[in-house]
């Protein structure tokens, strides 16, 4: 068996784009394709994402045939736990990749790439100068604050306040200071442990609902912030811990979208104002509320998030028939 990939990163967060080796995915909606890959081809995710070719925090993207009218490409996202519904850092990387590989007609100064994700249609705008793709921004699906100013009792931490917001995926949002944590002082491991406890508790006790499809109604992870949500000229820091305690090295595109939705619902940011969001690795995304929208009964926003992706390699992976460990394992 042979699998070929292009590796990129956005703000330090890896993206492994599958370029060959997958069988053809049957026709259907993007959620049906996601279910098919999950149920029938998950061994390939483990080969690409797990050790010895990947690692606990690896992330991947599989391009499939689009189903939505107007979509140039469709993508399924994969990680250590399975298949997510939205991934902003992947959209930024795929926007550049689509222009560089001429998967869309290249136009200067901006090329538009319409990407169908499991959460819906994402519109990426790719800066192009002298034929070369650069920074990418995207407008995602309607994002909204689902639960505001909630509290829950957490073992080892006591009462913790949180919001839950949707930015293509659902996230719990919480001020890290409630856990006694401070960016630049405490270990990443301490942030991960705190976020994982909150995610697990909320998954067990706080049901979610999405107006479009039940498959979108799950808590993807927790974002711990520095608490600097009110608009200012300073960058606000956060760490996103998602899937099975996977750590995003970037500020998290869908997470920035969710934070913007919560900020706007709380009158902490106005339409057109731009915030800078900084990750645990020090990389930055820009984020702004482009306009308001609706998501079922929810007041929502359309966010615009921007960043830059870079190439890190092109690889052909082989899997020998008697290599059991080569089929993927994780030690953490």
SSE arrangement:
Layout: E1 2-10, E2 13-20, H1 30-40, H2 42-49, E3 60-64, E4 73-78, H3 88-100, E5 110-117, E6 120-129, E7 132-139, E8 144-154, E9 158-166, E10 170-175, H4 188-205, E11 219-225, E12 236-242, E13 246-247, H5 253-265, E14 274-278, E15 284-295, E16 298-307, E17 309-318
Parallel strand pairs: 2-3, 4-5, 10-11, 12-14
Antiparallel strand pairs: 1-2, 1-17, 3-4, 5-6, 6-7, 7-16, 8-9, 9-10, 11-12, 12-13, 14-15, 15-16
Structural overview:
With 332 residues, the chain is α+β, with helices and mostly antiparallel strands. It folds into two domains: 2-140 and 311-315, Diaminopimelate Epimerase, Chain A, domain 1 (Roll), CATH 3.10.310; 144-307, Diaminopimelate Epimerase, Chain A, domain 1 (Roll), CATH 3.10.310.10. Helices cover 19% and strands 40% of the residues. The protein has five helices and 17 strands. It has helices spanning 30-40, 42-49, 88-100, 188-205, 253-265, and strands at 2-10, 13-20, 60-64, 73-78, 110-117, 120-129, 132-139, 144-154, 158-166, 170-175, 219-225, 236-242, 246-247, 274-278, 284-295, 298-307, 309-318. The chain has a 17-stranded mixed beta sheet that branches. A hairpin with a 3-residue loop joins strand 12 (236-242) and strand 13 (246-247). It is globular and about 50 Å long. The mean pLDDT is 97.
